[in-house]
């Protein structure tokens, strides 16, 4: 009996001890000892962005010696995998980079902190364009502060084009002009080692599909979250590069899979690429060459571009944060501080804050200048006429299905356009949240 | 567990009479309590870390649970959806191919090397360590990365192939070669079954071979008539273990294909697809259904192994 009792009490002691330890552990995240506050901040992006953020955060920590910022980053898809795991365990970072494609999902689940109470106090939003700021508001709650704007662009590599003796398209080019251009580059680059192609097949890029739909006069998603486009729309879009694919003029997927995480363009093996304009920074970094230029999207059937600005990303706070005031201060610093702005430049989009944009000391010929001028010029030329397409709940998951799953199988010729359409519409039933 | 039970039920004080309906004697209760107390850390761990999550995942498999949105009870929908899902069928095919082709090759390699090492020559320890090393490092992330570099376009394997006039390009981007590459990676890690085989080989009495020599049996005959039957329990053990193992391959596939299971789904292993659905797309209910299906199928396969074992596994002393 005595043995049993000793064993039991020993066990009880051990249990109590371990519980106490775990209790300490879960508190430790907050780290309140001695007035020291620890914030967790995560973002998606490449090395280039992380260097900028880390540098800006070092400044923030210097100015706020009682706040320590723990950082973490991942590539876009992995980033959201990590955040959904965080969300399940109720441990979202204090500050996190947010995207329109996930904003509703996280908001409706009550995972984000309503920052309205900090407006005008810790958080100055007065410099941000009202319409842009509204993109981070849901039901009169302020859930995401936009860092900047971006818009779609054709990135091109003038040095590579000169080497091949191919002229870049004119700004008023059409989709047909673009196809001819891609074919010309691929033919010119066929004998090089490694072989140079015009571009990757844009039909497997979700956002190019959306831009194309908008050009056809179709708003991709209805207010209730349902898809406005038809199976025929998608089929037509997918087959628009049939000729290029058949002739082997698009960047081969076999090669692309080996270059991962790089793509064709930032490996110097493709001459052009459609992407958000702020990708100019990571592209230049990957290529080791700053000479990358931007031009607008091809014109639609009516000769207009129908482009739109999108809040490139937002900064949000996890609803579970133990230090909302400090988190708000960090966001304010990243959005408004001129010194931080100088470091971050246009990597998070052309700055949302007008004050910050004005204060930005842009070097002539720099990537920053190119991005800012590009966004200015597409507005001046009257190319930007639309608002960003609606992002219903489940938008991000549908995008993943389109790009990572169906786009990959389609590029390998494993499925044809009909299968692609069938499967996207089937999956959409499970992925999109409609009313 | 068995040991504790035995100790607890051993009558110490003059053997109390059996009282099937009455209260148990205090001594035994105390011993049992102590036994359970000692077991408690393990039991707690089992309940909290294994049984609990298993029950939870069984429940989730009947819901459309999403890590952000939560979910509702949807009955058997997830299980039904599985069989209309082309990627699910792809992943089953890839995994079965990997298990059916990879496991026998791996076991054959392990047995072959074990037999070579079983010859009593110098430096045996060195060789044994050398052949075992890949198993220690093989599951690591860095090896998968090295593997990726080796099999890329113009990687060392491609260049070696070119020497022999085979210019296939890298294996990584080739849907026909990426699965063989994964199998090769698995076969290369034959260390664990090899060591077990080696131990088994040493158990075979030398007299059997000596007798066979006297009878004029050749090397092949000795192998099929003595080594294999005597080794069959070890072979059985390795077969079961490696088969289960090959159904669970994840890390190397995840790293080599960047989590995609590419090219063209050719390395989309079951567990990788489960991960994509559960954590990439947030369809945890669907992923849970996949997990349970895997448990059941692996269970059935193991059961079949055990049922058929009596026809080919020979235990010495059994007198068959």
UniProtKB/TrEMBL annotation, chain A:
The keyword Ribonucleoprotein does not apply. Keywords: Signal. InterPro entries: Bact_solute-bd_prot1, SBP. PANTHER family: ABC TRANSPORTER SUBSTRATE-BINDING PROTEIN (PTHR43649:SF30), ARABINOSE-BINDING PROTEIN-RELATED (PTHR43649). PROSITE patterns: PROKAR_LIPOPROTEIN. Residues 1-23 form the signal peptide. This is Carbohydrate ABC transporter substrate-binding protein. It comes from Streptomyces radicis. The keyword Kinase does not apply. Pfam families: SBP_bac_1 (PF01547). It comes from the Bacteria. SUPFAM superfamilies: Periplasmic binding protein-like II (SSF53850).
TrEMBL record, chain B:
It is found in: Cell membrane. One of its GO terms (cellular component) is plasma membrane. It holds the Pfam family BPD_transp_1. Residues 1-29 are annotated as: Disordered. Residues 92-305 form the ABC transmembrane type-1 domain. Its main location: membrane. Gene3D superfamilies: MetI-like (1.10.3720.10). Residues 18-27 have a biased composition (Basic residues). GO terms for biological process: transmembrane transport. The chain crosses the membrane at residues 34-60, 96-117, 129-150, 181-201, 231-256, 284-306. It is a multi-pass membrane protein. Keywords: Cell membrane, Membrane, Transmembrane, Transmembrane helix, Transport. Belongs to the binding-protein-dependent transport system permease family. This is Sugar ABC transporter permease. The lineage of its organism: Bacteria, Bacillati, Actinomycetota, Actinomycetes, Kitasatosporales.
């Amino acid at each position: 009996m005595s043995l049993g009792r000793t064993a039991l009490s020993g066990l009880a002691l051990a249990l109590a001890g371990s519980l106490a330890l775990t209790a300490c552990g879960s508190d430790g995240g907050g780290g309140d000892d001695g007035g020291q506050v620890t914030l967790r901040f995560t973002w998606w992006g490449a090395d280039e962005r992380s260097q900028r953020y880390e540098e800006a955060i070092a400044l923030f920590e210097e100015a706020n010696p009682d706040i320590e910022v723990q950082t973490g980053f991942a590539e876009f898809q992995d980033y959201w995998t990590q955040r959904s795991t965080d969300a399940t365990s109720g441990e979202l970072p204090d500050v996190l980079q947010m995207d329109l494609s996930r904003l509703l999902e996280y908001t409706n689940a009550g995972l984000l902190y309503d920052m309205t109470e900090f407006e005008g106090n810790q958080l100055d939003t007065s410099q941000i364009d009202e319409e842009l700021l509204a993109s981070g508001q849901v039901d009169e709650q302020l859930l995401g502060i936009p860092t900047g704007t971006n818009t779609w662009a054709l990135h091109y590599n003038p040095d590579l084009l000169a080497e091949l003796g191919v002229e870049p398209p004119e700004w008023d080019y059409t989709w047909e002009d673009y196809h001819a251009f891609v074919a010309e580059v691929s033919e010119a680059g066929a004998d090089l080692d490694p072989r140079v192609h015009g571009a990757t097949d844009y039909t497997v890029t979700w956002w190019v599909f959306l831009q194309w739909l908008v050009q056809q006069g179709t708003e991709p998603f209805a207010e209730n979250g349902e898809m406005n486009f038809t199976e025929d729309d998608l089929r037509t879009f997918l087959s628009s590069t049939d000729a290029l694919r058949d002739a082997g003029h698009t960047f081969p997927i076999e090669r692309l899979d080996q270059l991962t995480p790089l793509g064709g363009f930032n490996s110097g093996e493709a001459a052009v690429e459609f992407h958000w304009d702020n990708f100019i920074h990571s592209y230049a970094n990957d290529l080791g060459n700053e000479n990358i230029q931007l031009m607008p999207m091809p014109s639609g059937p009516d000769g207009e571009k129908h482009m739109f600005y999108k809040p490139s990303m937002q900064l949000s706070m996890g609803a579970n944060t133990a230090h909302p005031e400090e988190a708000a201060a960090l966001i304010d610093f990243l959005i408004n501080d001129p010194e931080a702005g100088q470091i971050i430049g246009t990597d998070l989009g052309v700055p949302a804050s007008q004050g910050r944009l004005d204060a930005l000391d842009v070097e002539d010929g720099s990537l920053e200048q190119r991005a800012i001028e590009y966004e200015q010029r597409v507005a001046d030329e009257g190319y930007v006429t639309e608002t960003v397409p609606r992002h219903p709940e489940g938008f991000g998951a549908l995008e993943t299905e389109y790009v990572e799953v169906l786009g990959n199988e389609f590029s390998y010729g494993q499925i044809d356009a009909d299968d692609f359409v069938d499967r996207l519409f089937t999956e959409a039933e499970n992925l999109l949240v409609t009313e | 567990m068995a040991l504790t039970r035995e100790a607890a039920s051993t009558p110490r004080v003059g053997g109390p009479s059996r009282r099937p309906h009455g209260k148990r004697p205090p001594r035994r209760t105390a011993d049992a309590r102590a036994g359970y107390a000692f077991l408690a850390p393990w039991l707690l761990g089992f309940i909290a870390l294994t049984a609990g999550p298993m029950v939870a995942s069984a429940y989730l498999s009947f819901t459309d649970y999403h890590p952000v949105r939560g979910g509702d009870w949807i009955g058997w929908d997830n299980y039904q959806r599985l069989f209309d899902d082309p990627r699910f069928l792809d992943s089953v095919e890839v995994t079965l191919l990997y298990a059916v082709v990879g496991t026998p090759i791996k076991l054959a390699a392990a047995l072959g090397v074990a037999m070579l090492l079983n010859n009593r020559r110098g430096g045996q320890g060195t060789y044994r360590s050398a052949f075992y090393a890949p198993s220690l490092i093989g599951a690591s992330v860095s090896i998968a990365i090295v593997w990726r570099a080796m099999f890329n376009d113009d990687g060392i394997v491609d260049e070696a192939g070119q020497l022999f006039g085979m210019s296939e390009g890298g294996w990584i981007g080739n849907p026909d070669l990426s699965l063989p590459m994964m199998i090769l990676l698995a076969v290369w890690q034959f260390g664990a079954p090899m060591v077990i085989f080696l131990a088994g080989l040493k158990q075979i009495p030398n007299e059997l071979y000596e007798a066979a020599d006297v009878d004029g049996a050749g090397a092949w005959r000795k192998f099929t008539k003595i080594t294999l039957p005597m080794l069959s329990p070890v072979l059985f053990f390795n077969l079961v273990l490696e088969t289960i193992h090959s159904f669970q391959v994840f890390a190397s596939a995840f790293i080599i294909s960047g989590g995609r299971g590419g090219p063209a789904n050719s390395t989309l292993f079951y567990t990788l697809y489960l991960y994509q659905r559960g954590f990439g797309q947030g369809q945890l209910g669907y992923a849970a259904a996949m997990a349970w299906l895997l448990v059941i199928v692996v269970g059935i396969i193991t059961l079949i192994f055990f049922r058929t074992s009596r026809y080919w596994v020979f235990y010495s002393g059994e007198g068959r």
